[in-house]
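Re: beginner question about structure tokens

> Can someone show what the tokenized structure looks like for a real chain? I only ever see the sequence side.

Sure, here's an example I had lying around. Input first:
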Amino acid sequence: MDVNEPQSVRERYARREAHDMRYSLLTPAALLALQERQRAMMALFARLGHTELSTLRLLEVGCGTGSNLIECLHMGFMPENLVGIELLPERFDVAKARLPASVRLLQGDAVALAPAVGSVDIVLQATVFSSLLDDGFQQRLADVMWHAIKPGGGVLWYDFTVNNPRNRDVRGVPMRRVRELFPQGRIESRRITLAPPIARAVSRLHPALYTLFNTLPALRTHVLCWIAKD
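And the corresponding structure tokens:
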């Protein structure tokens, strides 16, 4: 497909509300989902034997306003070992203002920027691929991510797997597609995150209902994956 996907992404983001309270951490459902993901990530690092995160180099593609990189700092990564790439200038500017100067931030298309081969231990992507509607661009970005990882490292993947019928600007990325994107990777995955519409509805009644409803795997819409590179 002959599509300028980066430009299409810019147009899709321009249609979004600038301050959508559904994603604010002042909203119980958003905060609970974040805390759940943080716990799952730390459990994953522990299983992988990464007891000293300060020695690992991490690159985030689509770092947005820097929230995930700030999480990484709280987890124990060192700022000089963090790199973020963000396509949208306005989001890049916010990340630049929020993060320490020693975090390396790059503005532009990650495929065009093409990080150095074998330069990082971890490449993080969080709900980026569900915003990419062109299969060819998805694959090119996956290839760039894979080449950037050192042997023994991996892709840390968090994204949703089901389509949102109310939002044509995104699409779910099922595990079948993840395996197509990274055919050489050894993938372990964990389904997490209560479906956001359900999470928002039950959390308004009581935040504890998030945990109760989240015990049903069928109601979880996202996956956290580690895609290992031997």
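Each token stands for a local structural state, so reading them left to right follows the chain. Residues 28-48 form the longest helix (21 residues).
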